[in-house]
Each structure stands twice: as structure tokens, then as C-alpha cells.
Write a structure and sequence with these properties.
By secondary structure, the chain is of the alpha+beta class. Strand 1 and strand 2 form a beta hairpin.
């Protein structure tokens, strides 16, 4: 359902079969916008619903041509310190944006006063647009992983995208260069992942770990030395792709933590290539591609050889 941003409000004009077609604010936002009823009820409780510019209740009638508003964009503190850093924006609208994160950059700072993280760059980006909104985190990428990462721009988008992530309605596709020759064309790695008791940050396949599933497809084989795979996450465990392929005996090139050879690359050869999902507000089907960075492209040329 397409609408229009007017100040802090998102306005939607009601369409119907005839001038006499009516429904309630609640049923309109449920059926036409796809919002869950608890979220609509929460918007009403805090006075963030309006009908034709007047405060609305859930049971007010909505007729064809009426304007239903939700206050989605109230001013909020950023939550992190804005910092002028490069930001490669792949997609942006009033509700969400997708950024191509460079390898080597943290998504968020771990220590107080630490700077240089992607969230700091995002706060600066909002500030330059004149937006005062909290920087919201939906999912993460490891510091040395590059690629597409999705951010909601307001609380309603956060809740809708969180639900979509839990329901596996956001498809996250990665490209990984792994050591060795993978014989099968495609498959699913279904192996639970838990912490490694002998290492502070490493994970491992463990019978007592959390369920983890990774679908993969071979894109190209480079003899016995390496295979390029497309990996899609069903779950989102820490280091999931890295752990799963190391468990199969095919660690990622450059991934020293999980036994990958480091002569090819000085980070794990992992890039978040695509995000595919239906926009939670507009209903538009989106496919967003993050071009691979120069070090990943260079590595592909090296393994292909002359």
C-alpha cells in the first residue's frame, strides 16, 4: 500500500469498490497495509493514529477517499554519536535502507567511546538528511564480512522486519570462497552451533547448540584448491556459514579462526551478496545486490588463474 510522508506522519488514501464501501481503521490497516493488530492497538494507545487529520480510534469508519495517518516518524535521539564516514547506500526510502558494509568495519561499537562503526556513519547520514530518528539494528555482519545489511528507519518498520526475519521472509544470500572441491551441486547443512569452550569468540558444531541450517549451491569450482558457493541462511547464528563449511572440511579462504588458508586473503572470503524481501509497508518485492569489493574480486581472479 503506497502512501506519503507528511512531517512525522505516513498518510494512506483509502481506496474501495464504491463510495459506500466502509471498514474500520483497525480492519483497514490490517488488510490494506498488513499491520498486525497488536501493533495497530499500540499506535492507538499513544495517539499515533489519525483519520482525516483528526485523532482516530480503532473502530472509526474508513470510507473510500479518507486519509488514514500513522505517526511513524517522531523525533528521537540517534542513540549513537554521528560520525562523518563513508556510507555506500544501496537502497533507501522513508522506512528502511540497505547499506553495503566494507570489510574491516564493525557494525556497532563494543566499548564506550569507540568510534568508526557503521551505526555511527548511519547516524551522520540521518543527520545530514535532517532526520532525528534512532539508529536501529535488525541483523549483523561480522567485522571482516562485507556486503548488504538492512536497517529499519522507524519503530514500526523495526517490528515488521523483525517478524519477517523470524518467519524467514527475508532471504539473505552470501557468496563464499571455500577451500577444496565440493562435489555435490547443492545441499543443506543442518548442524547445531554452540560456543567453543576453549576459545572466547569461536563457535563450533555441537549437539547441545542452537539449531542452524544453511542452504548452499555451487557457483563455480576452481580445481582442487577452491569452490565458490552461494549460501542462504535459514537461521542466523554467529559465524554460521564459517562454522558450517569448516565442519564439512571446507573452511573459507582467509578464515584463520576456523582453519582456512591465509595465503589467499587476509580476511574470510565472505560477502553478503543479495537481500530479497517484500517491503513491509509498500508491499513492493525488493532484490538488492551488493557488488563484491575489490579484494573479493581480486581473489576470484587469483583462484581462476591465467
Amino acid at each position: 500500500m503506497h502512501g506519503e510522508k507528511i512531517g512525522p506522519w505516513w498518510e494512506i488514501r483509502a481506496k474501495g469498490k464504491s463510495d459506500g464501501d466502509t471498514r474500520t481503521v483497525l480492519s483497514f490497516l490490517e488488510s490494506e497495509v498488513g499491520l498486525p493488530s497488536p501493533l495497530i492497538e499500540q499506535l492507538e494507545r499513544v495517539g499515533h493514529l489519525a483519520l482525516n487529520k483528526e485523532t482516530a480510534s480503532l473502530h472509526d469508519s474508513v470510507k473510500t477517499g479518507d486519509r488514514v495517518r500513522m505517526e511513524l516518524f517522531p523525533d528521537e535521539p540517534y542513540g549513537v554519536e554521528p560520525e562523518m564516514l563513508d556510507l555506500d547506500v544501496l537502497y533507501e526510502d522513508d522506512h528502511l535502507l540497505v547499506v553495503n558494509k566494507p570489510a574491516g568495519q564493525k557494525v556497532h561499537a563494543n566499548d564506550e567511546g569507540e568510534t568508526g562503526a557503521l551505526l555511527n556513519a548511519l547516524a551522520w547520514h540521518y543527520q545530514m538528511q535532517g532526520l532525528e530518528t534512532r539508529v536501529r539494528l535488525l541483523h549483523r555482519l561480522d567485522q571482516e564480512t562485507s556486503g548488504a545489511i538492512l536497517f529499519p528507519k522507524h519503530a514500526v518498520a523495526q517490528k515488521l522486519l523483525d517478524a519477517m526475519l523470524q518467519e524467514r521472509k527475508i532471504k539473505r544470500e552470501y557468496w563464499a570462497l571455500v577451500q577444496g572441491y565440493i562435489r555435490v551441486a547443492h545441499g543443506t547443512i543442518d548442524a547445531p552451533i554452540g560456543r567453543d569452550r576453549n576459545h572466547a569468540t569461536r563457535r563450533r558444531v555441537s549437539g547441545t547448540g542452537k539449531p542452524a541450517q544453511t542452504d548452499f549451491r555451487v557457483v563455480e569450482r576452481f580445481g582442487a584448491q577452491a569452490t565458490l558457493v552461494q549460501a542462504t541462511l535459514r537461521t542466523g547464528r554467529t559465524h554460521q556459514i564459517r562454522v558450517h563449511f569448516a565442519h564439512l572440511g571446507h573452511p573459507l579462504l582467509g578464515d584463520e579462526l576456523y582453519g582456512g588458508p591465509t595465503n589467499w586473503m587476509h580476511r574470510q572470503a565472505l560477502h553478503a551478496k543479495f537481500l530479497r524481501f517484500t517491503h513491509p509497508i509498500t508491499g513492493e518485492d525488493l532484490e538488492i545486490e551488493a557488488p563484491e569489493p575489490p579484494d573479493f574480486s581480486d581473489l576470484l581472479r587469483k583462484v581462476k588463474g591465467p
